[in-house]
């Protein structure tokens, strides 16, 4: 037990320090043994981990069907990376939150699922039952027939992230429901971790019905046997999709979103500019934390995903016999580093209150990934401590001085990322033309 606690503490410390995902931090701390025992299981279901919820969910179902298609290739087939920036201001609690979109069509779950599965040659059924009871019965029937389902519940109502009530209805991310626990009337969920997450069925039903735009959506994947030609075509189609999507002019859902964000960080006129929104510095720590969580793999959604895209490019280079794609993969790993530097600048660990928020955020993630429902009590306690730490961090930054230097430094980093990604996407477009 002592050894396990020590391992958990070291993994958490590394996640907080580096922003790494649970899997990467654990493997670094535990060494080769982490890779050898990484295939945890619950009965017949194998936990395969993963980085981004959407691609990891598909990869997990395929792996449990015995299909050898990893998450990087799934991610690539879906169009790879995306871009998007939104600053939300909430009147009910005075919070400010930054939403960063890093996946192709990050705002459209169903469209992304359809094109990804279609390119991979995976048959599927999509269900959108309007009523809670009908949706619950549909899920139960699929699971009883041995068909795991990709679902999209509201994160607050799902419960195991132990979010504050203010997050009710803010949305969630895809996960795999793989079995019903009839004895406890609960749904067993795989959310990229190493242990089962058990959600009471009534709570799970409410979570699936909470957000209107994807209420009760459910994808059931059929048996697939994609051959090398199918995978090569999926990779090429996905890369072309990525290049076209990120070459568009939209400053909300394409690369110009980064340029817009860079300007809004220093603008003094626009109503959504940071110097105006944060003139009172209220909720600034919340916003900076959302930048850190959004850009780093330690966040719930898997971070900026440029490293996952790079791994996909390496696979595509071999599948398509286009070695130049591997060279481009190296550039996207450098860009992943630029995002890390931005996150570090936004929420520096050497500010004690911000460092504490990072530590507790990492601890919640580690508990969910490592222990699933078994770590629920610990995760709940850490989440309570996190709420107190966030309030303290907001107070400190509200009382701090001029935000101009911070916003200027962040603006310069975002502008550099925009230029690096613009040049790299232009290279990608030429390579897959």
UniProtKB/TrEMBL annotation:
Pfam family, one: BtrH_N
Location of the DUF4872 domain: 224-363
Limits of the Butirosin biosynthesis protein H N-terminal domain: 52-191
InterPro entries cross-referenced by the UniProt entry: BtrH_N (IPR026935), DUF4872 (IPR032369)
Region (Disordered): 19-45
Residue stretches of biased makeup (Low complexity): 30-44
Domain of life: Bacteria
Identification of the protein by name: DUF4872 domain-containing protein
């Amino acid at each position: 037990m002592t050894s396990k606690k020590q391992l958990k503490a070291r993994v958490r410390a590394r996640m907080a320090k580096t922003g790494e995902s649970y899997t990467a931090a654990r493997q670094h701390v535990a060494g080769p043994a982490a890779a050898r025992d990484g295939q945890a299981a619950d009965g017949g279901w194998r936990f395969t981990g993963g980085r981004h919820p959407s691609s990891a969910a598909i990869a997990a179902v395929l792996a449990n069907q015995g299909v050898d298609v990893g998450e990087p290739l799934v991610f690539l087939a879906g169009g790879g990376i995306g871009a998007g920036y939104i600053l939300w201001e909430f009147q009910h609690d005075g919070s400010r939150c930054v939403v960063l979109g890093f996946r192709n069509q990050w705002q459209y779950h169903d469209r992304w699922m359809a094109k990804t599965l279609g390119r991979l040659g995976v048959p599927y059924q999509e269900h959108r039952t309007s009523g809670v009871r009908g949706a619950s019965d549909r899920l139960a029937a699929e699971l009883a027939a041995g068909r795991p389902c990709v679902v999209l519940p509201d994160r607050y109502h799902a419960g195991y992230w132990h979010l504050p009530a203010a997050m009710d209805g803010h949305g969630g991310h895809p996960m795999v429901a793989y079995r019903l626990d009839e004895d406890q009337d609960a749904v067993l969920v795989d959310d990229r971790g190493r242990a089962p997450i058990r959600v009471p069925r009534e709570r799970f039903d409410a979570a699936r019905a909470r957000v209107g735009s994807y209420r009760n959506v459910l994808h059931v994947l059929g048996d697939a046997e994609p051959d090398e030609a199918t995978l090569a075509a999926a990779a090429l189609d996905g890369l072309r999709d990525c290049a076209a999507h990120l070459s568009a002019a939209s400053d909300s859902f394409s690369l110009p979103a980064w340029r817009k964000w860079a300007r809004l960080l220093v603008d003094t006129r626009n109503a959504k500019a940071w110097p105006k929104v944060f003139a009172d510095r209220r909720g600034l720590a919340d916003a900076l934390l959302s930048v850190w969580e959004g850009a780093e793999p330690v966040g719930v959604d898997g971070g900026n995903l440029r490293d996952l895209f790079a791994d996909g490019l390496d696979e595509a280079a071999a599948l398509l016999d286009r070695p130049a794609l591997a060279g481009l993969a190296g550039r996207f790993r450098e860009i992943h580093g630029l995002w890390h530097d931005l996150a570090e600048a936004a929420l520096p660990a050497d500010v004690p209150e911000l460092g504490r928020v990072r530590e507790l955020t990492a601890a919640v993630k580690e508990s969910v990934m490592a222990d699933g429902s078994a770590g629920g009590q610990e995760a709940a306690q850490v989440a309570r401590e996190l709420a107190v730490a966030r309030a303290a961090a907001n107070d400190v930054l509200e009382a701090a001085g001029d935000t101009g230097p911070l916003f200027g430094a962040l603006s310069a980093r975002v502008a550099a990322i925009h230029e690096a990604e613009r040049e790299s996407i232009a290279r990608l477009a030429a390579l897959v033309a």
